[in-house]
Design goal:
single chain, transmembrane helix, GPCR_Rhodpsn_7TM, 214 residues, mainly alpha, membrane, Rhopdopsin 7-helix transmembrane proteins, 10 helices
């Protein structure tokens, strides 16, 4: 998922820098947006699954092998792929409804979905509905699951008498928490910020953070 997520934007950006060409065809833009949304959504759901995995490992260690059995892992993986495909097609179908655009310049280094939606001449109702519905289902709910998992993890760790034991248990969550903060903090800010007043420059920096840095 990470390789696909980065590969959907970075190679094109490097080619653009090396050739000094900022042009992309409509079809290539839609393809890039579809792949980007697909892998971004997959990353999003898998980060939530990883938080649940850490919660089970720390809070229910004796039942870990039973709860996180291979069948459940496969089910969670299939769920993430299915939800990602649906999200990708919703963005594609929404964009295909637009018959005219205000301008042909995208204020980003790739075909960022919020930027594409902002270019539409059509009314903002469909755009806002898609943005908020996708934001709630693939932003708010997964993030709530991650916060709840870490709330339970911290509660369980505070019951451990030795600080060394607490540090050892929580150290396995450090890298995951870092990625979650970068990915969700900049991603949700960029996505939902496009509906309100939004600075293209800040949006570019934010999108660089969640597409490349994470």
């Amino acid at each position: 998922a990470d390789i696909g997520f980065t590969s959907s934007t970075v190679p094109r950006m490097i080619v653009g820098i090396s050739t000094q060409s900022r042009v992309i065809s409509y079809g290539a833009c839609l393809t890039q947006m579809s792949l980007f949304v697909l892998f971004a959504c997959m990353d999003n759901i898998l980060l939530t699954v990883m938080a649940y995995d850490r919660f089970v490992a720390i809070c229910h260690p004796l039942h870990y092998a039973v709860i996180m059995n291979p069948r459940r892992c496969k089910l969670l993986l299939l769920l993430s792929v299915f939800a990602s495909l649906v999200d990708s097609q919703v963005h594609n179908l929404t964009t295909l409804q637009f018959t005219c655009f205000k301008e042909v310049q995208i204020a980003s280094f790739f075909c960022d979905p919020p930027q594409i939606l902002d270019l539409s001449c059509s009314g903002s109702l469909i755009k806002n509905i898609v943005t908020y519905v996708v934001g709630i289902f693939l932003g708010f709910f997964p993030l709530s699951g991650i916060i709840f998992s870490y709330y339970k993890i911290v509660s369980a760790l505070l019951k451990i008498p030795l600080s060394g034991g607490r540090y050892k248990a929580f150290s396995t969550c450090g890298s995951h928490l870092s990625v979650v903060c970068l990915f969700y903090g900049t991603g949700i800010g960029t996505y939902l910020g496009s509906v309100a007043s939004h600075s293209p420059r800040k949006g570019m920096v934010a999108s660089l953070m969640y597409t490349v840095v994470t």
